[in-house]
Amino acid sequence: MKKFMLTNKIIIFILFILLLSVGIAILFSGTVSPKTYVGQIAQKKITAEQLEKTMTYTKIQAMLRYGILFEQLKSLFDLEEEAWNQLILIQEAQKRGIKIPNQEVIEEIAKNDIFYRNKKFDPSLYKGIIKNSFQCEVKDFEETIRQSLLIAKLFDNVTKEISVSEKELMQEYKKSYEQLKVYYSLFPMPEDLSVINVTPDEITNYYIAHHKDFYRPLSIKIGYVKLPFPADGGVQKEVETKYKAIALRDQYAITKNLRTLAEKSGWTYQETTFFSKNNPPREINWPLNVLRNAFKMKKGAIHEPVELEDGYLVFIIQDIKKPGLAQIQEAQEEIKNKITKQKAIEIAKNNAESYKEKMKEILDDAIDEKTLEAKQKELGLIIKASELVSKTKLFTDLTIDLSSENEFYALNTEKEIAVLATHSGACLVYVKNFQPVQLEDFEKNKNAFKAELIKKIKTITINKFVEQLINDTPIEKK
Questions:
Q1: Three-class SS of residue 294?
Q2: Using the 8-state DSSP alphabet, how is residue 229 labeled?
Q3: Cβ(434)–Cβ(411) under 8 Å?
Q4: Is residue 425 classed as helix, strand or coil in its secondary structure?
């Protein structure tokens, strides 16, 4: 035991010397060059060096997270965007007074087996792995660990009050382990939704009650021209198409009118609607890196010609909308559609309600499948039977809407019938069999179930926190 404690002290001492040497090197390194600012977060200026370093940290974090899969996945990462988001999180952690002392960084690094040789921490192996595998300096790797710990502590701070009572635990356990077998009949929404009237007052009231739902991320509108390769042109014609695309780009620099230039040459000019980075229009199936670049461009800027499988693409940034809450005028059509759907579901529920007693009367009798088939034809319904499955699975299978979630999970009596909203209308659900949870099973499994439940709640809480923080934090990029 003493030998083990001594070994750990030696590891920590070695790492401390490494960290100290990095600090001394920084202190006595050359002259300080003028700072270049690339933007600001909540009115705090961000230097080019800060952003570049943070991009390095996010890359190392991804390499640690995904290991050998990183090379296959790296094209999916937008390191610059990740870096801006990380800077927001770091700023929030610092605002809350969260700090990571060197000792914690040392202890975190010492947990990693890859830096050990013959069961001892090996400084030369440590430096070699960082240089060759992570392709960075020791100080950058250690700052990566510090920032990871800082963000982890921030998330701990956000979720520290989360707990689950015994009653809540039982409710969630029942959702997963109570079982139902049901008969059900689906009632779709009306096909013609244009007959449903939505008043201006309803739109205004909905916006007031749900205005936070109408946050819009940064979005862009693109104008583009596709120059197709000639069907029988060969390599020579493909090269000619490339130079036509280059000429179009150069002419735009003079005229600033891509539409007119395209029409003069017989090409079709098209425009997208406004779209965000995570929701590009279906019609533009362009390379991921091209779309990412588009969000870094300024209004009116033109992208270098892009080679596609069937030709060349030339596009401009037609317009840019900054992130923020959409005004009621912008959200009006979306709100109208939401209210229309709500009313359409109510119509479907009312339709289902009119069959409720008749369906219950048929199913209350112990009838065979042949009789059931005849009875449902009389009613003009299609009645289906589920297997005996967990409530959670049945909830998904029947596409029950969240507005009917509580009512669905309360079903626990045989021959009970309920009208529930679904994503596309309504559903009449009749309980044929109900299988309650066994208390002895609950007592046996509750600790493990509770740990998983809290982990799930924390993940949801953290995701919401990060999304809200990023949305609410003013960012200005140059």
A1: helix
A2: P
A3: yes
A4: strand
Domains 179-203+343-435 and 218-322 share a fold: yes
Q: Which long-range contacts (CB under 8 A, 24 or more apart) does 151-159 make?
A: 151/86, 151/89, 151/90, 151/93, 153/93, 153/98, 153/100, 154/89, 154/92, 154/93, 154/96, 154/98, 155/458, 155/462, 155/465, 157/96, 157/98, 158/461, 158/462, 158/465, 159/458, 159/461, 159/462
pTM: 0.77
CATH number of 218-322: 3.10.50.40
Q: How many Å apart are CA 10 and CA 112, to the nearest integer?
A: 15
At 128, is the secondary structure helix, strand, or coil? helix
For residue 113, the Cα-to-chain-centroid distance in whole angstroms is 32
Mean pLDDT of 68-96: 92
Query: CA 142: distance to chain centroid?
Result: 28
DSSP state of 222: E
Other CB atoms within 10 Å distance of the CB of residue 130: 21
Residue 191, classified by CB atoms within 10 Å of its CB into exposed (0-12), middle (13-18) or buried (19+), is exposed
- 275-276 and 219-228 beta bridge pairing: antiparallel
Q: CA-to-CA distance for 447 and 175, rounded, in angstroms?
A: 16
* DSSP category for residue 366: -
Report d(CA 63, CA 50) in Å as an integer. Answer: 20
Q: Whole-angstrom Cα distance, residue 293 to residue 297?
A: 7
Return the CA Rg of the chain: 30
What residue type is 458 in one-letter code?
K
Residue 279 and residue 288 in contact, taking contact as beta carbons nearer than 8 Å: no
Contacts of 127 (CB under 8 A, 6+ apart): 138
Residue 140 DSSP code: H
What does the pLDDT look like over 285-334, one tens digit per residue?
898 889 989 998 999 999 999 999 999 999 999 999 988 888 999 899 99
Q: Which residues pair with 41 in a beta bridge?
A: 44, 475
Class of domain 2-160: mainly alpha
Q: What is the pLDDT of residue 24?
A: 44
Q: Architecture of 179-203+343-435 per CATH?
A: Roll (3.10)
Residue 269 tokens, joined: 């000019």
Domain ranges of the chain: 2-160, 179-203+343-435, 218-322
Question: Measured between alpha carbons, how far is residue 121 from residues 66, 110, 148, 439 in Å?
Answer: 23, 7, 22, 49
Burial 24-41 (b: 16+ CB within 10 A, else e): eeeeeeeeeeeeeebbeb
